[in-house]
Amino acid sequence: MTKISIAIDGPASSGKSTVAKILAKDFQYIYTDTGAMYRAVTYLAIKHQISFADEAGLVTLIKENPISFQQQVDGQHVFISGQDVTAEIRQPDVTKAVSEVSAHGKVREELVAIQQQIGENGGVVMDGRDIGTAVLPHAEVKIFLVASVSERAQRRYKENQEKGIPTDLETLTKEIQERDHYDSTREISPLKQAEDAVRIDTTGKSILEVVAMIKNVVSEKGYQL
Ligand code: CDP
Ligand code: CDP
């Protein structure tokens, strides 16, 4: 059976990782959360007190601290040099700084090379901001997920409450708007819909509705996975 690549891009909390994980499981594909990689580098910078503006210092961190993923019963875990940092990379201090770290061209070069290696043989569902435009420009299926800012902030609020991360809706709304702005206006690989991507507005839609819509796109393109 053909092993295709599925690229899922979109702004913060549009539902990318949730639907990408389900699709990967259903298709028995590899799931790759590229945002987790940028978060891992940001976490390392905080831990090693490297300035977010120090591009060369950040690249050294990536080279010296291999990032890996492992599928566990409760979902995908992220490791840096063997240490499980799944929870740490979602903390507010990382979220606040990640856009600045990910705007550096050389940081992107390092991580994109790893992402392209993961995706080289297809059979992958990869989510991020530049998958359809830069990482996997030849992906057979490209999806661009969007949702209203208020719904995205509500989703993140609920998620943080469940995880016990202290939070308030106003701050989350502001943080999401700022991050979207920063990610869409940076010079290198900004968050942008690929010309051949299918745009899906997930506002008011359940996770399973969105998954079904994407599966429809896949079959309309002639792929039986
Ligand atoms: O899950 P959430 O929407 O909060 O973000 P994420 O997917 O974990 O990504 C965190 C940050 O990493 C984004 O805000 C971008 O600054 C950066 N990122 C990127 O630049 N390119 C990607 N392919 C993925 C993430
Ligand atoms: O990866 P991204 O930042 O785009 O979003 P996510 O982490 O997949 O989704 C953020 C939150 O919204 C999660 O708690 C999802 O369960 C929830 N969600 C939802 O309520 N409805 C959807 N259609 C998609 C996601």
List keywords for this structure.
9 helices, five-stranded parallel β-sheet, three-stranded antiparallel β-sheet, 8 strands, 225 residues, Rossmann fold, binds cytidine-5'-diphosphate, 17% strand, globular, alpha/beta
Average residue pLDDT: 95
Q: Total number of β-strand segments?
A: 8
State the order of secondary-structure elements, H for helix, E for strand: EHEHHEEEHHEHEHHEH
- Rg: 17 Å
Q: Which molecules are bound besides the chains?
A: cytidine-5'-diphosphate
Total discrete domains: 1
By CATH's scheme, which homologous superfamily applies?
A: P-loop containing nucleotide triphosphate hydrolases
**What proportion of the residues is helical, as a percent range?**
40-55%
- The first-level CATH class is given as Alpha Beta
- Uncertain runs: none
Please state the oligomeric state of the protein chains shown: single chain
Enzyme class: transferase
Family: Belongs to the cytidylate kinase family. Type 1 subfamily.
InterPro entries: Cytidylate_kin, Cytidylate_kinase_dom, P-loop_NTPase
Catalytic activity: CMP + ATP = CDP + ADP; dCMP + ATP = dCDP + ADP
